[in-house]
Amino acid sequence: MVKCHLSKIMGERRLKISDLARDTGLNRGTLTRLYHETAERIELDVVDALCTYFGCGIAELFEHIPDSVEKPQNQ
User: Fold this and answer.
1) Which end of the chain has fewer CB atoms surrounding its CB within 10 Å, N or C?
2) Where on the phi/psi map is residue 12: left (φ > 0), alpha (ψ -120 to 50), or beta?
3) pLDDT at residue 75 above 70?
4) Measured distance CA(15)–CA(24) in Å, rounded
5) Domain 2-64, CATH class in plain words
6) Taking a C-beta distance cutoff of 8 angstroms, is the pair 6, 61 a contact?
7) What pTM did the predictor assign?
8) Gene3D superfamilies per the record (predicted)?
9) Whose CA is closest to 1, among 47, 62, 66, 58?
10) How many whole angstroms separate alpha carbon 43 and alpha carbon 39?
C-alpha cells in the first residue's frame, strides 16, 4: 500500500486544506482525499505541485509499505 503523509506535513505547518487549496490552486476535493488517505489515484501534476509547495521530495510525501504476504506452512 502507499501511505500519504500530507496530513502529517500539514499538521506540522499548521495548514488547513482550504489554505493549501488556495495557495496551490489544487482542487479541495483532491486534497481532502489525500489528507484522509482515501484517494485511489493521483495525477503527477498534483504530486509536483505538493512537492514544490512543501519543498520536499516524493519520498517525504508518500511511502510504500509492502503488503504482508503469508507464506504457506509446510505440513
Assistant:
1) C
2) alpha
3) no
4) 12
5) mainly alpha
6) yes
7) 0.84
8) lambda repressor-like DNA-binding domains (1.10.260.40)
9) 66
10) 11
